[in-house]
Design brief:
Pfam family, one: PS_pyruv_trans
Number of helices: 13
Low-confidence stretches: none
Organism: Heyndrickxia coagulans (Weizmannia coagulans)
GO molecular function: transferase activity
InterPro entries: Polysacch_pyruvyl_Trfase (IPR007345)
Protein name: Polysaccharide pyruvyl transferase family protein
Largest sheet: 7 strands, parallel
Distance between the termini: 50 Å
Number of strands: 12
Length: about 350
């Protein structure tokens, strides 16, 4: 009876930590020398969302370029349990912890947000930098409780910097996380350039989502795809989320989808990283919104001046066909390439400052 009462008053983050410590206390898989300066990449993508995989890759590339003498330590999301114990054993207060960018700051992906809260809670003395995120907490009780927990944990950390990847998230972060440093930079994948090598382009690639972020009904999606097949050929389907993903083949899968995009005349998508992959490979693209602000916000903040990427906020088949015809005749070689190097300075400055 007493044990049950004690369990009720123990904070959830402590329960998580105790459980993870007991489970992995004898595991030394990822233990590192404390004397080696380290940059931690926490909650790295080890699942088949190639947008998140590309975020992890781009984040690591930036950190390698900024910290050539540091050891970059990557902890996959599914190994977060091990990471708590390992970081405690391996880190000093001089080491920097970075948290993965993306669209998982919110209760839609509560497991990832809980992992982020736990890391922030248990490392109050380390500099922590959360790479550019979209914030998306729902307005129901679940979302409000999750947001409340996040605010409570984040506000207690004295050296936590949080970056948004579009303006709406930036404004929400300033509203909720006033005790922390808040910045605005593009999605980290937009720091890459994958235009080369040039490939012969043919056909149209469709990358549509079918999860709860889509704004399309099944009938709308099928109608659009059938019309595209009727009017244009060939049509290929390749999503940015794949099954049977092997984390050891991460870069292979990224080069594969970048090659597929670069080998197409046009990509039609409602995936944020469908649009972003087109931006970094200089591939003509028509993009539709999803059910939150990340696509529209990212397009308007960073990509609207790219001639080869077009956003359609309201689905109209005639408008889609009109834009397809325009983009298929566009001379992509004459279009200005993406260059957002200067836009990442706030993030870079935060990482390198003592």
């Amino acid at each position: 009876m007493l044990l049950k009462k004690i369990k009720k008053i123990i904070p959830m983050t402590w329960k998580v930590y105790i459980n993870h410590y007991l489970k992995y206390k004898n595991d030394t898989t990822y233990v590192y020398d404390k004397e080696i300066p380290k940059i931690i990449v926490g909650i790295a993508a080890d699942y088949g969302n190639l947008g998140d995989v590309a975020i992890t890759f781009a984040q690591v590339q930036m950190l390698k370029s900024l910290f050539p003498k540091h050891k970059i330590v990557i902890f996959p999301f599914k190994h977060t349990s091990k990471m708590l114990k390992v970081l405690k054993k391996s880190c000093t207060s001089r080491d920097i912890i970075t948290l993965i960018g993306g669209g998982n700051m919110g209760n839609r992906y509560e497991g990832i947000e809980e992992a982020r809260r736990t890391i922030v809670h248990f490392f109050p003395d380390n500099k922590i930098v959360s790479f550019p995120q979209t914030i998306d907490f729902s307005n129901d009780n679940f979302g409000k409780k999750s947001l409340s927990k996040t605010i409570k944990v984040y506000s207690k950390h004295k050296n936590l910097s949080i970056f948004a990847r579009e303006s709406q998230s930036y404004n929400l972060m300033k509203k909720y996380f006033g005790c922390n440093k808040i910045g605005l930079v593009p999605d980290i994948v937009l720091s890459l350039n994958k235009e080369k090598p040039n490939l012969i382009r043919e056909g149209i690639v469709i990358s549509f989502r079918s999860d709860n972020e889509t704004i399309f009904s099944n009938n709308q999606r099928e109608h659009l795809i059938n019309e595209l097949k009727r009017i244009y050929a060939p049509i290929k389907y390749y999503d940015t989320c794949i099954d049977n993903f092997n984390p050891q083949n991460s870069y292979l899968e990224l080069t594969k989808i970048w090659g597929i995009y670069k080998g197409s005349k046009l990509v039609i998508t409602d995936r944020l990283h469908g649009m972003i992959f087109c931006a970094i490979t200089k591939t003509p693209c028509i993009v539709f919104p999803n059910d939150n602000h990340k696509i529209v916000g990212s397009y308007n903040d960073w990509l609207k001046n790219l001639e080869y990427i077009e956003l359609i906020e309201k689905f109209e088949l005639n408008k889609v066909v009109e834009l397809i015809d325009y983009l298929l005749t566009l001379n992509i070689d004459n279009c200005i390439s993406l260059n957002l190097k200067e836009k990442f300075k706030p993030l870079i400055n935060e990482l390198i400052q003592e």
